[in-house]
Amino acid sequence: MTIQSGVGLRIFKDFDRPSPSLIAKFKGIPSSNINDEMNRLFCMRHNIKPLNP
């Protein structure tokens, strides 16, 4: 018997984005450094896109 929780890899398209002024403060910092400080949550390369947009 296989138990499926219904939770898996998901793509979230609707979420609150940070303000442009906050983003500007991170300019010049490598995304990998920011990612490490966020415990590697929700950070990926900008050019990764959904397969079925």
Walk me through what this model shows.
By secondary structure, the protein is mostly helical. The chain is built from 2 helices and no strands. It has helices spanning 20-25, 31-37. It is extended. The relative contact order is 0.11. The mean pLDDT is 76.
Attribute tags:
mainly alpha; 0% strand; extended
Characterize the biggest β-sheet. none
Structural class: mainly alpha
Gap between N and C termini: 34 Å
Mean pLDDT: 76
**Series of secondary-structure elements, N-terminal to C-terminal:** HH
- CA radius of gyration is 15 Å
The count of β-strands is 0
Brief rundown of the structure:
The protein is an all-alpha fold and 53 residues long. It is 25% helix and 0% strand.
Topology record:
Layout: H1 20-25, H2 31-37
